[in-house]
Every structure is written in structure tokens, then in C-alpha cells.
# Entry
Amino acid sequence: MEFVRHEDKSFEWGVKKAAELGYTHVEPMVHWGRELLSEAGYFHSVSMLDDPLRIKRACEEAGIRLSGLSSHTPLCKPEIAVEYLKQAIRFAAECGAPVVNTDEGPKPAWTTEEEDHILMRYSLQEAAFFAEPRDILIGIEPHQQYSKTPEGLDRIHSLVTSRAIGINYDTGNAYLCGHDPLEWLQSVKDRLVHLHAKDISAEQSGSERGKVTGTPVGCACGDGVIDWERVIEICRGLDRDIAFSVECGTVEQAGRSIEYLRKLIE
# Structure
């Protein structure tokens, strides 16, 4: 849903636009509390204080489904993450989203790396207790200080043993962290539950690769450095469907992304 971020339109408008472009799924972003822009219909995020059936109805009216919820919260800060993820999981179960996506988030300024992993384990275990009986999956995304390497993401994933916990792989973040996004995807494919289809322009690559751990949105799929044919090939070999949640910055980019990816997939 990030493709409508700068359109100053509501969630419902964004869902209809996604359907018009030919998308079969959307990944709504949810938040706690209330804030002015989304309440006024100028932003696509949905408050988890709203009725989750609002999301379900909007998707049904547009003839579109949910791939998951963008419910990012800092796992290193359990005072935020535990209740946020538990509410997101309940929200997902009621609106029909099979996955909630998150990452470790910015860490507290005063904790050590070992302490952070204990805190993440606590957050993920509490969330897993809610996710398992509801058949909701938790997708951990490479995005922050510890998940910026394959080894770091693996360590976070291994903190809790649960059928509910998997990987939400972000092709663009993996590339910008300085790694081969195809090799990394190959290494996590058996734990993959969702995929952020994010391409990175040559210009952004030149200025940011190896210097950042992620980026809000990418360019249109096919305009950048990601080898989408190979990404599709890797995912085709799995025994389950993986949603490609396109993460770009404009409606025009979203339109070109789906045209490009559809041709490759078909």
C-alpha cells in the first residue's frame, strides 16, 4: 500500500486503485491509536482501534485479497512490541490477513546486543502464543541493525521455535545492506512466508548500498538492479504460494511493476 503514500488518499481509495491496476492482493499498514491524516482520509494506514471488518469489506468490494499486514514494531522493545503484535495478530485473524510482518526495529540506546536478543525472544514468544492458535504467520523482515546480515536474520528467527514464525524477505533491503539478494533468498526460502518485491535504482544503489539497512520504498520493479526472473524461479520451487507485495513509491510505479512482473510470472 506504500504506492499511495503521497497521494493523500484514504485506505479504501488505495485498495480500489490497487485493484484497478490489476493487483490481486494488498498489504495494509496498521497502527495504534489515532492520528490526523488517516482519520481525515489523507493517508492509507488503518488504526487497529477501527473495526477490522473495515479492511475486509474494502477488499471484498474491490475484489481483492490480503497478503498480510504491515505491522512493524521494534522487537527489541517489548514494552511496545508485545501488545502491538498481539493486537495485530487478532486484527489479522478477523480481517483475513494470513501474515503479520515486523522487524527488530531501532534498539534501545542502553542495551547490549545479548540483552537485545533476550528482549526479542520475549517479544516473539509472546506473539507466537497468539499467532499459533489463530493460524497467523509472523514474517521477520531484514530491515534493521541485527537483521541486516543473513547470519543476523537467522539468529533472530531461531530465537523461538514456532510454526508461526517465518521470514518476510525484502529484496531491496537485502541488496542495500550489501549482500547478494538472490543468495540470501535461496538461504531463507524454506522459511519464507511473504516477500516484499522491492527494486532499487542504479542511482540509489550507487549512493546508499552498504551504508543503510533498508529503505521505505524502491523504484518500479524492472527499473532497478534486482533479477526478478531469478527471484520468481526460486519462489516457484516452493511448496506454497508466496505473495509478492510490491513496495514502490507512486501509483505510476505500481502500474509498471505489475505489468513487468506479470509478464515474467506468466
Notes: The CA atoms of residues 57 and 95 lie 9 Å apart. The chain has eleven helices and ten strands. The longest strand covers residues 69-74. The chain has a mean pLDDT of 97.
